[in-house]
Specification:
By secondary structure, the protein is an alpha+beta fold. The protein contains seven helices and seven strands. It has helices at about 5-15, 60-70, 90-95, 100-105, 110-120, 130-140, 145-150, and strands at about 20-25, 30-35, 45-50, 60, 75, 85, 125. The strands form three sheets. A three-stranded antiparallel beta sheet has the order 2-1-3, with no helix packed on it. The chain is elongated and about 85 Å long. The chain starts with a helix and ends in a 9-residue tail after the last helix.
C-alpha cells in the first residue's frame, strides 16, 4: 500500500524536469553525457535533448550551433596513427657513420652491453625512451656520436626491418 508521502514524492519527481547535458573537454569534445534534475550553467556544458551516448567523442561546433540556434555536434577528425619509427639493427648501427666500427669493436663492458642489447632485438624503436640513455653510454665511453641525428633522422625505406 502506498502512503500519501510516497504519492507526493512520486508526483514531485514526475513534475521535475530532467535536463540532459553533454560535458565538453577544453577542445569541445564530448567526454560525458549526463542528466540533472535542475539547470546547470557552465562553459563546458551543453544542454541536449536526451542521454545521447552517440555524442561521446564528437566535437561541439560553437559557430554552427549559434547559427542553427541549437547544439550542433560533428565527428572529430581522427588523426592517423603515426607509423612506428622502427629500423633494422644493421640500419641502426649504420646511423653511427664512421664511429660504427669502433663501437662494434669496443670490448669495454658498457659498450659491449649496449651493442649486445641492440643486437638481440628484431628492430630498434627510435621512439623508445631508453634509446637516448643507451647512446649516451657510448658517448661516455669516448665515442663521438650525435644522439639527436641518430634518433631524429627520418626513417628511410631501406632502414625498415
Amino acid at each position: 500500500m502506498i502512503n500519501s508521502e510516497e504519492i507526493k514524492m512520486q508526483t514531485i519527481q514526475e513534475k521535475s524536469p530532467v535536463i540532459y547535458y553533454a560535458h565538453l573537454d577544453v577542445a569541445d569534445t564530448v567526454i560525458a553525457v549526463a542528466q540533472s534534475p535542475s539547470r546547470i550553467d557552465g562553459p563546458q556544458l551543453v544542454e541536449v535533448d536526451s542521454l545521447r551516448e552517440e555524442l561521446l567523442g564528437q566535437r561541439y561546433d560553437r559557430e554552427a550551433s549559434a547559427a542553427a540556434g541549437q547544439p550542433v555536434f560533428v565527428h572529430a577528425p581522427v588523426a592517423p596513427a603515426a607509423a612506428p619509427r622502427h629500423i633494422s639493427v644493421g640500419a641502426f648501427f649504420d646511423r653511427f657513420g664512421p664511429a660504427k666500427w669502433g663501437i662494434l669493436a669496443d670490448a669495454t663492458p658498457t659498450v659491449a652491453a649496449v651493442v649486445k642489447d641492440a643486437s638481440v632485438r628484431k628492430y630498434i624503436d627510435l621512439d623508445s625512451p631508453d634509446l637516448p640513455a643507451g647512446i649516451a653510454l657510448l658517448q661516455q665511453a669516448g665515442h663521438e656520436v650525435d644522439v639527436q641525428a641518430i634518433i631524429t633522422a627520418p626513417v628511410q625505406e631501406g632502414e625498415r626491418p
